[in-house]
Amino acid sequence: xxxxxxxxxxxxxxxxxxxxxxxxxxxxxxxxxxxxxxxxxxxxxxxxxxxxxxxxxxxxxxxxxxxxxxxxxxxxxxxxxxxxxxxxxxxxxxxxxxxxxxxxxxxxxxxxxxxxxxxxxxxxxxxxxxxxxxxxxxxxxxxxxxxxxxxxxxxxxxxxxxxxxxxxxxx
Length: 171
Hints:
Blueprint: H1 17-70, E1 80-85, E2 88-93, E3 97-103, E4 106-112, E5 119-123, E6 125-134, E7 139-150, E8 158-169
Antiparallel strand pairs: 1-2, 2-3, 3-4, 4-5, 6-7, 7-8
């Protein structure tokens, strides 16, 4: 037996076409907002990762250079001479010569006589520069410029470029 209460004639079950279209437009708008938020988070995350990589590379390279400038690996650190050339730096001690050079965007540290193997100190290095700040005083500025491409899947990859400096007073 059927329900005894009659339904009003104007009411139907389900949604009208207009209601469904409005719901679809709202859903598409929400999805577009979520996709753009996700893309911006991904963009920010890849830049943060690139910055961290560069900071770690620069920190290691600068620490290694500072140790060599102090003469930690030399038996005669008090006898020190600097030779600066484009993209090359030589620290000449009485018992050894330590050379830093840029080869194919890589900073290489080599020691002569060859008691130690050549060491890759940093990657993504664009420029190595050593300048004497004051001609009267032994104050030097060592600069390393890094360029790290990130988000390489794009047609034009973004490049994060940073320079790091070390000021040293050499006796």
